[in-house]
Amino acid sequence: MKKNILKAVALATLVGAIPFAALAQNAAIVNGKAVPKARMDVLAQQLAAAGRPVTPEMQGQLREEVIAREVFMQEAQKQGLDGTDDYKNQLELARQAILIRQLFENYRKNNPVTDADVQAEYDKFVAANSGKEYKARHILVETEDQANKILADLKKGAKFEDIAKKQSKDPGSGANGGDLDWAAPASFVPEFSEAMIKLKKGETTAAPVKSQFGYHIIRVDDIRQAQLPKLEEVKPQVVQQLQQQRLQKYQEDLRAKAKVE
Question: In this predicted model, which residue has the larger pLDDT, 184 or 10?
Answer without folding.
Answer: 184
